[in-house]
Each structure stands twice: as C-alpha cells, then as structure tokens.
Protein 1
Amino acid sequence: MTAVGVMSGPITDRRAVVPLLRRLRSDAGRADPLPVWAELRELGDVVPAPWGGYFVTGFEACSQVLRGRNWLVPDFGWQERQGDTARWREPATREMTRTLSRLNPPEHTFQRRALGNLFDRDTLETLRPRIAAHVTRLLDRLRSHLRADGTADFVPLVGDQLPIHTVGRWLGVPAEHYPRILDFTHRQVHAQELLPTKSELAISARATVEMRDFFTRLVAHRRAHPGNDVLSGWIRHWDAQYPDDRAAADQTLYDLTMFITIASLETTATLLTNAVWFLTRDPDRADWLRRHPEHTDDAIDEVLRYDPPIHLNSRYAAEDTVLAGVPMAKDTTVHVLYGAANHDPRRNENPHVFDIRRKGGHLTFGGGAHYCLGSALARLEARLLLTQLLERFPTLRPIAAPTYAPRMVFRRVTSLKVTT
Ligand code: HEM
C-alpha cells in the first residue's frame, strides 16, 4: 500500500465539473472513464457540484464519508427538506428510498441485524456446487454458439445469466421468471441515476409497478407454501416482529426481496463481463492467470478496483462538518466517486496499470454500516466462472471493445463479443 498523502484543497467554481460530467456521460467517457476521473481528482478531493453539494474524488475522503457516522444516506427525511420535492416523490425513487440502502439508524440497524451475514462460509459452501454446475451449463452454451457461429456475445449468454440463476435459486424463484426479472431490473435502475430525465423516470415507474407485482406475489406464494429456504425464514422472522401488523411485515419482506435481487444482478454481471474483458484482451494476462490460479482472487479484486460496477453513491452531512478541509453545513450532499477513489495514486501506485498482483485497495463494495451484503457471493461467482472459463477456453478473446448502457451511476455492459 502506498501512503495516503495530504488531501488537496477545494475549487469554488460550481461549473468547473460540467464539461467533465458531460465527458463521463459520452460514449468515449463510458468506454474509458479513467482520464476524466484523473481530471476530477486534479480539481480537488472534494469538488463542488453544479446543483449544490460536492463530488468526492480522493480515496481517503471517500473512505471517510462511507465509514463516518456523521454521514447518512439520503432518506425520506432528507428528501422532504430538498427544494425539488417533485423529483423525490417520483414513484420509482420512493420505492428505492424505502430499501435497506436508503435507511439510516435505527431502522437500518434493525433490518441489517435481522439479515445477519447473508453469505457466511457455510452458506457459500452449500451454494458452491450449484453455481459451479450452472457455470458449466452456461459455458457449454457459449461453446455451442462459438462452434456454430465463430463468435458469441458473452453478456446475454453468460454474464447476465449467472447472477440471476444464482440469486434466483437461492430465493427459490422458478427459472421461467428470470428473463422477466432481468428485463424490469434493467429498466427500474434509471431512477437511481444522478439526473434522470422525465422519460427515464417514466420508464422506471412502469418497471416499478411490474417489480412490485412480481415480488408481492412471490412473498404471498411463499407464505402459503413455506419451506426451508431463505425467504421462508425471513417471513417467519418478520411475522414475529410484527405479530399484529401483517401489512408491515409484507412491506418489509417485499422491500428486502426486491432490493436484494436488484442489488445483485447488474452489479455482478458487470463484474463477470469486466473480468473476461480485462483478462482476455491481453492473451498473456489470461495465460499467466491460467498458470497461476492461486491469483484468481487477486485478479477479481483488481477488476473490481479498476472498473467498479457502481460508479457513484451519495451521503449527506448529519451535522456541520469539515471534509478534506472544506466546511460543510448539515444536510450538504456529497457524491462519492468510487472509480476516482480507486484510481487515486496516493492509494494505488500507477493506478491506470491493470496489475493482478497489485494487492491494492478499493471501495467498490462501499464501506461502513452499508458495506455490500453480497460481496462474498459476487466474488464466489466470479471465481467459479474464471476457473472454468480459463481452462475450457484457453484462446478466448474479444473481437471488439464492450458496449455500455447510457448511464453514469450503475455501469452496465450490454455486449462483449468474443471468439476463440
Ligand atoms: C460485484 C457485485 C457487487 C457490487 C460491486 C456491489 C456494490 C455495492 C455497493 C457499492 C453498495 C453500497 C455500499 C455503501 O453504501 O457504502 C452495496 C450495497 C448492498 N449490496 Fe452489493 N454489490 C454487489 C453485489 C451484491 C450481491 C450479489 C448482493 C446480494 C445477493 C448485494 C447486496 C447488497 C445489499 C443488500 C446492499 C445494501 C447494504 C446496506 O445498505 O446495508 N450486492 N453493494
């Protein structure tokens, strides 16, 4: 680890970031955000945002925000105090604001304690053979496509499929529903973008209705046919917490199943596709990892550091505070830029170099009270996929750079064409 240097001071011009944000939203910026992150960092560890609040670019400052008790997630209370209340009252936005990631203590602590460590060692060991078998099936399919056509798209065939099959089976959702779940989650996520347009919010609102209908039915069906699965366990727990209020129990159960599904799909799919892209675009790199499988976990962490599936997350100041030397009043919003932080040269030397043996630091799974609950599962999926893929497809390589959905917050790779 390199020493974390002194944090740099602020600029005051709120328009300074506008051209950089524009570049981040462009095709070129999505394909390679690294130069823009570097320019943002050069503006300071905290950079004023045009609409008020700040972007946080430095590793140490981002880490302080994510871990600090004086930084809270923007919840309903914060939204009500904003000028633009219409924006926050959008149905798709409200739906997400009720979920774990937008709760603060004491509600957050209450729900998080009830969930416990979702993917402890025993659970992962139980899931491992199923996931490995599914990887085999997906790679069989990839092989058939490659044999038939010479090329194949990794994203729809494997990258998008493994996460939904993993989390779907874990929650006991029948496989026939997976295409529908993938479809509405891709559409719902617009509402979580930084500045969604009206039409994007309308798309999200429609997807939210479908999502609510699906997960409400799932909970009701499982309540009628309880088993020994994770969702049946949650139903027993929340029914006991709210013995006289079935509606409150059902609301919490819906929020949890919906959010955990949505949180696990695109994120893990992006990790899996990025891993294949970063490793196979350089045949020597893939070959080296095949000969050194003991470094698979290091490779996964370098992929996570290099191109985080979530690019931005927000917090607000619970009280007047100072961040990287900049005084911030209570309620000030800050946007943590995970990618800029992960590429901070004060934390990771030569950050633009993809180096499997780096053992660097990253904030890709967040930090503190909201640290990702699915990191161990995502890592397991990536490990099982890479282990089989590198063995079975030693000459796999991309034929073009990946394409990305037009988003800034939730990165989604829409296509990665490969051949052997
Ligand atoms: C590569 C894959 C993934 C990435 C990059 C990722 C990233 C993140 C990030 C950045 C956060 C917010 C942390 C913060 O606010 O400090 C988060 C929260 C969360 N993630 Fe993940 N995630 C991934 C996979 C998963 C999976 C597979 C699941 C579940 C099966 C999951 C469940 C959650 C949950 C429930 C939270 C909310 C935790 C809370 O607010 O207390 N994630 N994740």
Protein 2
Amino acid sequence: MLKEVSKNIYYLPHDETTDRPTLGYIRGKEFSVMIDSGNSKRHVDLFYNGLKERGLEPPKFVIITHWHWDHTFGIASLNSKVIANKLTNRQLKKIESWKWTDKDMKERLESGEEIEFCDKYIRLEYKDLNEIKVKTADIIFDKSLTLDLGNLHCEILLVGGPHSKDSTIVWIPEEKVLFSGDADCEGCYSGEENYNKYELARYLNILRETEFETYIHGHCEPMSKTKLINELEEELKSL
Ligand SMILES: [Zn+2]
C-alpha cells in the first residue's frame, strides 16, 4: 500500500473518495518522520498497516503541512509528537472548540467559516460525526525547523503561498525530495478563493531555488521538478 520513492522515502497515495491526502514517511537512522496526519483514525490505520507490511518503524514525529481538516484530523489518533508552525496551530486551537453536530456544521457553512467542499467530504469520511476529534500540535515553530534523522535531514519551512497562509513544505536535501502538502493549489476558504498571482509567483521562486528532483504533492502523484515548474509557470501566465 505504501509506495517507495527511495529506500528512505515512502508515501501512502492520496484517495479522492473522502479527500484523503498523500501521507509521507521518511526513514531516518535515529528516528523516522511522517508527513501529515491524515483525515481520520481509519486513514492513520491504513498508513500504519502500510508501515507494518514493509517492516518500517512507527514515526517519532509527524509534521503538519497546513491546518485543513484532511491533513490534521488524524492527529488525535497518533502516538507520535506532532510538529506544526504557529499559524497552523492557532487555527487548530480554534477548530478544537468546534462542535460536530449537523446543526453546528450547517451554521458554519452559513457563516462562511466552513466551505461546501470540506463539509461534503467530512460527512463522507465520518458516518458518525461524534468520532471527530481535533487536537493541536506538541511542538510549535515560528518560521523554520530542522530535524536531524542521523543519515538525513528534514528542513521544515513555512512558505505560505496561494493555497493557505500557513502552508509548510518539508525538504529532504540528501534525497532531493520535497513534500509540499497543497502549497501550490489555489485557495479555497473565504477571502482566499482565487489563485493569488503574487503568492504563486513567490512560491515558484522558492521552488526554483530549492534543490530537489521529486515533488510529493498532497493530492496528486509525485512529479519531477521540471514538470512542476513548467505547469506552474503555465498556470501563472493564465492568471
Ligand atoms: Zn489544503
């Protein structure tokens, strides 16, 4: 179930059925790391089964790429320590107090706090809304953080960009791999619905300057840097 990028990098592919994003795994000599917590306990279990099949150790840390539900609602089902930037954590703190009844969810749609797309998929993932538990992170950083896994490093960087102000990327220089969450996508919440040209251009510059070969996206198959840059340049031209 887990796909192999290299002997130290694996991922559980995204699944559109209930909008489950890609979950990443970085195998270190000292400890291992997971990228994003998934959208539910079922999603986390699937990832752990994938680790077991390959004889991989459970991750010591989980790095969150941004606050959106599909990347964070698995946090409550994890034993690992969770790392997030302070913008992500601030948002998680807010959502922690939300109630998950049909009525509360409808009210949030009306107020614009939630969007139709997420409401639909949350209801598809959670037949029983009472199962939803939102938890904040354990380790909070400001702009960047480096993890030394012994044989390789995770460079965690808050980049913002067109999708969400708190978008964080994880770069593994030794493997030339970059996990991006949804950082290059257009925004979806109120006030950020359109593709922000300025933010996309700024994010493109960060990508150009970062040395990687494989880009692992939250909702697409991995792609090469060349293909990614070409596609985003086309997108930028069309805006
Ligand atoms: Zn997202």
